[in-house]
Amino acid sequence: MELPDKETMSVRSRFYRIVAAISILLVLDRLQEILYLLPVYKGLYESYPFYIPEGGKSILQILLAVFGMQLLTRSQTRDAVSELGFKAPFWKGLSFGLGATFLMILGFALTNPFRLPDDGFAAVYLAGISPLAEETLYRAFAVGALYFRCRLPLWLSLLIPASIFGFGHVSSGSGLVENIGLFLLLSSGGLFFGWFYIRWSRNLWAPFFLHAAMNLCWQIFDVSNSAIGGWWPFLLQISAIIVAVLLTLKFTSGKEQKDEHLEQEDSGNADMPQA
Fold first, then answer.
1. Is the dihedral of CA 172, 178, 180, 184 positive or negative?
2. What would the pLDDT profile of 52-68 be if each residue is shown by its tens digit?
3. Of the candidates 226, 235, 140, 230, which has an alpha carbon nearest to the alpha carbon of residue 183?
4. I need a surface site. Which of 98, 104, 117, 168 has the fewest CB within 10 A?
């Protein structure tokens, strides 16, 4: 029997890795619906506030994203955690998130009354645990795996997770127009957040603190129940993204990430399965 040549094996190995990465992303994206099929999980909503079951779901998403990266990279847990960006400089991400949202916070402070959240645990979930899970899954795992491990073009590595992220939130809208608006807003935001993750040297804390600060504004300024929130909150969100882009262009070059992407492509045959 004629064995496949190395180039054929490389293409096949890359294809399997792409399928695996997207499959893991789709499953974890729908983890809420999967868990809701379990009577135990469904019962938690009847006995506890929403953030108890959903907080558990978010933590499970993070753990499974780490495990998924282990499978794709055939690495130890600590290496997968590092590849996802958990070990990146924390202070850089914090500085970036606060700097990018400064005008947004100021804009809300001048126009909306400040109030402490009625339920502090809910605020911790919405502005902490949930953004961390989403950035881990859609940016660190999905964008990182598709770009660096599957060696897809950057635009496609950003577009796939961003589209899935946006589509997963359309049900939270109250009608067709709002759902379309949510999809466009969140999927385009996902493109930028994925780009921030790449440009800041796979620093998970950069998109996380930007995401967390934006969510926190919704909690402490009583903005809206929707991610769009009207024209003024929408403009403030756009301002935060613009400032984030400017900060990213100012303090990052992108050369390191391009070089790493090329290195992955050149070394693509190193971990091919042997016939």
1. negative
2. 999 999 999 999 999 99
3. 226
4. 98
Tokens representing 260 are 């790493």
Tokens of 55: 């907080």
CB 275 within 8 A of CB 9: yes
Q: Would you state the pLDDT for residue 85?
A: 97
* pLDDT tens for each residue of 20-35: 999 999 999 999 999 9
Letter for the amino acid at 112? N
- The angle, 0 to 180 degrees and rounded to 10, between the axes of the packed helices 51-73 and 6-29 is 170
Asked if 53 and 38 count as a contact pair (C-beta separation under 8 A), the reply is: no
SS3 for the chain is CCCCCHHHHHHHHHHHHHHHHHHHHHHHHCHHHHHHCCHHHHHHHHHCCCHHHHHHHHHHHHHHHHHHHHHHHCCCHHHHHHHHCCCCCHHHHHHHHHHHCHHHHHHHHHHCCCCCCCCHHHHHHHHHHHHHHHHHHHHHHHHHHHHHHCCCCHHHHHHHHHHHHHHCCHHHCCCHHHHHHHHHHHHHHHHHHHHHHHHCCCCCHHHHHHHHHHHHHHHHCCCCCCCCCCHHHHHHHHHHHHHHHHHHHHHCCCHHHHHHHHHHHHCCCCCCCCC
What pLDDT is attached to residue 25? Answer: 98
What's the chain's Rg over C-alpha atoms? 20
Task: Judge residue 263's burial from the number of C-beta atoms within 10 Å of its C-beta, 0-12 exposed, 13-18 middle, 19 or more buried.
Answer: exposed
Report the b/e string of 79-104 with b at 16+ CB within 10 A: ebbebbbbebeeebbbbbbebbbeeb
From the list 179, 188, 133, the residue with the least C-alpha distance to 159 is 188
